[in-house]
Each structure stands twice: as C-alpha cells, then as structure tokens.
Design a protein that fits this description.
Elements: H1 2-26, H2 30-35, H3 38-80, H4 84-128
Helix pairs in contact: 1-3, 3-4
C-alpha cells in the first residue's frame, strides 16, 4: 500500500514540477532564449523529470529505511554503553562538516555535467527542426 502512495505522490510531484517549469519558461523574455541554447533548456526539463520519476522515490525509501536503522543502532549502543554518547557528538559534527564540503562539490559537478550535455541536446533539437 505504501508503494502505491509513493508512486502516486511521485507522479503528482512530477506533473506539478513540469507544469510550473513549462509555465515559467513560456513566460520568459526573448533575451533568455538568445543567451541560453535550446539544448540546455531541454536538458533541464528532462533531468528534472527523470529525477522525480526515477531517482526520488528510491532515494526517499532508502532515506527512511537507513534513518530508522541508524536511530535504532544508536539507541541500542547508548542503552548498552552510555559512555558512547559522549563520543558520538564530536563524530557527528565531523561528519556534518564533511557532508557540507561534499554537497558543494557535488553541486558543482552536476553543473559541469549539465553544461557538457547541453550541446548534445541542442544538436539533436536542431537536427529534428
């Protein structure tokens, strides 16, 4: 039953995102289309919809499952060895700062990937036209 609700939620989110994205792009001034190639715009549409349809449901499911396992493990460790709670806080802070660096780096890599894929979509669009 949970899978049905997750699938319906993902489809609804995909529909809403695509509709808002399309409405926004249609209302943009012509200068936007002069500075951005059509391949980059198509790449953005396909990437966002792909993320919502394929990647997001699996990621949410994995996040909930892993989060529950981590919380259960921490509770068991603290219940059996209370002194371990003292060492968990510095380890969590170190992990948090490493995660900040990773997210910034990952975002830059995704931008680079998007820019490198743009000419392919642009060429494909021009070929169809």
């Amino acid at each position: 039953m949970g899978m049905i609700f997750a699938s319906l939620g993902a489809m609804r989110a995909s529909y809403i995102l695509h509709e808002r994205l399309l409405n926004t792009v249609v209302r943009l001034p012509m200068s936007f289309f002069d500075t951005n190639p059509s391949g980059r715009i198509i790449n953005r549409f396909s990437k966002e919809i792909n993320a919502l349809d394929n990647i997001l449901p699996m990621t949410v499911r994995s996040f909930i499952s892993t989060g529950a396992q981590v919380v259960a493990t921490l509770v068991v460790i603290i219940a059996s060895t209370p002194i371990a709670a003292i060492f968990m806080m510095p380890i969590m802070l170190i992990y948090y700062f490493i995660q900040l660096v990773y997210v910034a780096t990952s975002r830059q890599l995704k931008r680079i990937e998007s820019v490198t894929k743009s000419p392919i979509y642009s060429h494909f669009s021009e070929t169809i036209q």
